[in-house]
Write a structure and sequence with these properties.
The complex is a heterodimer of chains A (about 220) and B (about 240). Chain A has helices at about 1-5, 10-50, 55-70, 70-80, 90-115, 120-130, 135-165, 175-185, 190-220. By secondary structure, chain A is an all-alpha fold. Chain A is elongated, with a radius of gyration of 21 Å. The mean pLDDT of chain A is about 90. Chain B is α/β, with parallel strands linked by helices. Chain B is built from 9 helices and 10 strands. Chain B has helices spanning about 45-50, 75-80, 95-110, 115-125, 140-155, 170-185, 200-205, 225-230, 235-245, and strands spanning about 5-15, 15-25, 30-35, 60-65, 65-70, 80-85, 160-165, 190-195, 210-215, 215-220. Classes of the chains: A mainly alpha (about 220), B alpha/beta (about 240). The interface of A and B includes residues 126, 130 and 133 of A. The structure holds adenosine-5'-triphosphate and magnesium ion. Magnesium ion binds near residues 43, 44, 164 and 165 of chain B.
Chain lengths: ~220, ~240
């Protein structure tokens, strides 16, 4: 009974639930913004890595390698606490989005590159032989086929970004985790933390299940 | 009369390995040229240079309908005029048969959808695939897919059609339907360059047969000259080896 009162204290959960929901909203705002910006940035990085002129592919590769190596928490702290020393000052929200986007774009770029490279060479040749411009070849022929390949790993990346939003609490962003720790301090009871954990799981479990199903489906009807 | 395709001193190497040793070849408008020769002799490389799917040496020159085939802006113009049919079809699997045929006229020529669709359906009727227009390529037989690929190339109203062993990937019972479409096409005045192992087709349809070996044109002439009266030993032994099979 004691355990239930400590970890699943229903009255406390009900009291703090609105706070947790407002935190969830912030978490979603950070996550969705970073995911969308990361997708755009990642597609751009993948295309210039594959087809950019001169040193551009190499520079793109350097970017991708660096931002896949750096721990997100370190990057976030640099963006929020170090950049102000050179006069660049971001709000907690922007700092979190910038750090998440920089990293997500690097992972997304590798996913898109693998997807594009998985398209048979004959598709590129047929497009070129028909006279399609590079842009039309990509938009009408290559990317629509690559999308099918990249959706499972991209969804996986979305899950990671949404999870990593929790790090934003270290730059005082009132996200789900931050609200939960504050509510815990106020109520002197860890129930809000358990509530937050449950909300994370409820949010991400469906995505995890979707990835599993997609992987199974795309694995099955692979084209010859 | 100036030739429609003028190939001069065409050289192509992969590293130290020379695939084409300075080929000179003129092809007249409306001519049907069949290219034969052993595996690895450079037949595919030769025709893939014509629309620059393969880059070639700067000392070489290819001119198609007055336009020099080089890197840069003019290449798009050449490719719009030169259709190509591949051994492995290379249809777009995510588009229906109809959309496969409509895509390039809309994107490259700026055709209106209704106009592109009408023309695509006409072409599909011509190659005998009209009933499959709404299907995806994966649902079609190899012979049907290759006929769609021919229609897709023809939709650009090319001056030249290049074929790289269009029937080599087909089950034997489907070879005939594709060759029939090509024979009909040859009668319409389109310039055709066909790499093929189908000696019967070459003999019946070609205006000129070119025999390649080791990256060179060894011998060329009318089908009668090449098949009935080859002058070169290498041509003779090649023909013997393919006709024995
Ligand atoms: N990308 C490449 N890299 C290196 N060598 C190549 C490449 N493509 C072709 N070759 C070589 O160039 C030579 C000519 O090839 P090509 O495909 O033009 O021959 P082909 O006459 O079409 O033969 P086949 O009848 O087998 O199709 C071959 O020896 C081949 O191995
Ligand atoms: Mg070949």
């Amino acid at each position: 009974m004691n355990l239930v009162n400590t970890f699943f204290n229903i009255p406390i959960l009900i009291d703090t639930f609105p706070l947790l929901l407002s935190g969830l909203l912030v978490t979603l705002e950070i996550g969705v913004t970073s995911i969308i910006a990361g997708l755009a940035g990642g597609l751009f990085l993948a295309l210039v890595r594959l087809y950019g002129p001169g040193p551009v592919p190499f520079l793109s590769k350097i970017y991708i390698d660096i931002f896949r190596s750096i721990p997100l928490l370190v990057l976030l702290i640099i963006v929020y606490y170090a950049l102000p020393f050179v006069g660049i000052r971001f709000s907690p929200f922007v700092s979190a989005v910038v750090a998440l986007t920089l990293v997500s774009a690097a992972y997304t770029a590798e996913i898109f590159r693998a997807g594009i490279e998985a398209i048979p060479h004959g598709q590129f040749e047929a497009s070129q032989a028909l006279g399609l411009s590079g842009r039309h070849m990509m938009v009408d022929v290559i990317l629509p086929q690559a999308i099918k390949i990249v959706i499972p790993p991209l969804t996986n990346n979305c899950i990671n970004v949404l999870k990593d939003t929790a790090l934003a609490s270290v730059v005082a962003m009132p996200d789900l985790l931050k609200q939960a720790t504050q509510a815990q301090a106020l109520a002197a009871n860890p129930t809000p933390l358990i509530g937050a954990a449950l909300i994370y799981v409820a949010l991400l479990w469906p995505l995890v299940a979707i990835v599993a199903r997609l992987e199974k489906r795309f694995g099955k009807d692979k084209r010859p | 009369m100036t030739p429609l395709i003028k190939i001069s001193n065409l050289k192509k190497a992969y590293g130290a390995f020379t695939v084409l040793h300075g080929i000179d070849l003129d092809i007249a408008e409306g001519e049907v040229v069949c290219v034969i020769g052993p595996s690895g002799s450079g037949k595919s490389t030769l025709i893939r240079c014509i629309n620059r799917l393969e880059a070639f040496s700067d000392e070489s020159s290819i001119v198609v309908d007055g336009v020099t085939v080089g890197p840069g802006k003019a290449l798009a113009k050449v490719r719009a005029e030169v259709g190509m049919v591949f051994q492995s079809f290379n249809l777009f699997p995510h588009l229906t048969v109809l959309k496969n045929v409509m895509l390039a006229p809309m994107r490259v020529r700026g055709a209106k959808p209704a106009e592109a669709e009408r023309k695509a359906r006409d072409l599909l009727t011509r190659v005998g695939i009209a009933a499959q227009a709404e299907k995806y390529p994966g649902k079609l037989s190899g012979g049907q897919q290759q006929r769609v690929a021919i229609a897709r190339a023809l939709a650009m109203e090319p001056k030249v059609m290049l074929f790289d062993e269009p029937t080599s990937a087909l089950d034997p019972e489907m070879v005939g339907e594709v060759l029939d479409v090509m024979k009909t096409l040859a009668g319409t005045g389109v310039t055709m360059v066909v790499v093929t192992h189908e000696m019967g087709f070459a003999r019946q349809v070609a205006d000129r047969v070119i025999f390649m070996d080791g990256g060179r044109i060894v011998e060329q002439g009318t089908p009668a000259e090449i098949f009935d009266n080859p002058r070169e030993d290498r041509t003779r032994s090649f023909l013997r080896s393919v006709l024995e099979h």
